Amino acid sequence: MAVKNQTPIVTTAEMREIERRADHVANPTYAQMMRNAGQAAARVIFDQIRRSPRFNPRAPSETRVLVLCGKGNNGGDGLACAKELARLGVMPQIYMLVVNARRTPSPITDYVRATLKDLIADGIYIDGVEASGEGRLQRLGDLWSLLLRADVVVDALLGSGVSRPIEGDLRDILNEVANVRDMLRVDRLPLLVALDGVSGMNFDTGEIDVAVVPADLTITFHAPKRGHYSYPAAAACGELVVVDIGIGTHRRDDDAAPVDLPVPTAMLADDALVAPLLPVRLKNANKGTHGRPLVIGGCDDFVGAPALSATAAYRAGAGVVTLAVPMSVKAIAAVVIREATFITLHESPGAMTPESVPVITRWMSISGNRAPVLMGPGMSQAETAGEFVFQFLQAVGADLEGRLVVDADGLNLLAKRDNWHELLPPRTVLTPHDGEMSRLTRTSLRDVQRDHIGIALRYAAEWGHVVLLKGPHTVIAAPEGRAVVMPFANPAMATAGTGDVLAGCILGMLSQGVKPFDAAVCGAYLHGRAGERWRATHGEAGMLAGDLLQYLPELLRDVAAS
């Protein structure tokens, strides 16, 4: 199978280093990258103008595009974009925060000066405010009238360098954009396009300034940044388009050594990344070939959770799934999932007790089963369930290395103990949502939510386990410092039981010999793709977790064949 190009997700530091190394060998230079970025962005905007119903039947030459340019490199991208739009037949207007030509000379400012000169020669309208703020009120009045007439507004004010609250002229400009958007009718709102990212977003954590104006479309360069897949910035960026700016892995002289670009920490999940990780089904397989995983969970108040997980494991390809559940759960689960086998556990009252630990370990010993275990779905937070968890972990020890998934109440019960991560066998897969992650890390919910990718990477390394941090754009982080981010942000999946299905998908992958990190990536990707397939037919509300199950086999087929 040919491996297609995969999409990295970079930090600002990684992107700066990529640009520095490319410039160092002139492949391309900084000025060429700026030109390429502006030209690529202009072509995306021009395509939007030609294809979008909101602009038809107006010709591109009649479309009013206003480009807002800041004083940094992002403003240079905006000028390059304006120049290319003019070449394509769209006569843009430019509003500049400062006069870029006064900056200290460099290859980039030389390019900006030349671009400004060309734009002026082409008769492009250029307005703006001086850095001193002199004549500011009159100039902002000019901006108001420009915004009222614009069909497209391009935000090229501030790139990835934001490190403090936005203030001064830049804040006033963004406020003007927000005010105009608030007063216009929906059918008159301009299309707001951000270059690289909306002005005021943190490109690493996804935090945004209060002055941020959400975009309809974000055009980012070379690779998406972490902030594009972290909230609240992910919601403020609108549709995300990644464009090539010519950064290659080879020097311009083909005989020279290749350019050694840094390897990004995070990658975006797609078919190309996931397909090689999926297990292969053998022609002579039997039910034991693809594993005999065990699901431990359930209580009389949460009967359905372990059954959902077990069914998902089957749908993901597991051979024989066993449920270890209390008697009150078994009576119902056996009707729901007829294909499962069962271990009946002691309960008091309606939740499992530590007396059940020898029952499970004896079964594992007699069966010679080295298949993976999922612990937690519907387990409850009863004290007896907590004692069960810790006695079970003491009994199995490191024997379950790389074969344990802990989800839901299993995580909540662990979080009640100090140094809980030391009790787990190495490379356990943990699947917390934000609230559970907050309890596990004993940090605030806000601290967890402010940097999903960074938090997942930090604690995966600290704990020595695979961390799957659930939510929009779920993150899977490995202890050695790599992460994969899911491309899915699907509100239809905000419903009870979808996490149980996810845990079962991961268990099904583990049971077929997929390694823990890869199993978490495959399970999360199939789960997210199933949600997208349901949403395409039914919309963004009304999903039942069990609705996802029917799509898993066909997605296994489709992704493997991609």
What would you note in describing this structure?
The protein is built from 19 helices and 18 strands. It is an alpha/beta fold and 562 residues long. It folds into two domains: 237 residues, 3-Layer(aba) Sandwich (Rossmann fold), CATH 3.40.50; 271 residues, Ribokinase (UDP-N-acetylmuramoyl-L-alanine:D-glutamate ligase), CATH 3.40.1190.20. An eleven-stranded mixed beta sheet has the order 1-9-18-17-16-15-14-13-10-11-12, sandwiched between helices. A seven-stranded parallel beta sheet has the order 4-3-2-5-6-7-8, with helices on both faces. β2, α3 and β3 form a beta-alpha-beta unit. The chain is elongated. It starts with 6 loop residues before the first strand and ends with a helix.
Q: Which oligomerization state do the chains in this entry correspond to?
A: single chain
- What is the CATH class name of the largest domain? Alpha Beta
Mean pLDDT across every amino acid position? 90
Q: For the record, give the distance between the C-alpha atoms at the N and C termini, rounded to a whole number.
A: 9 Å
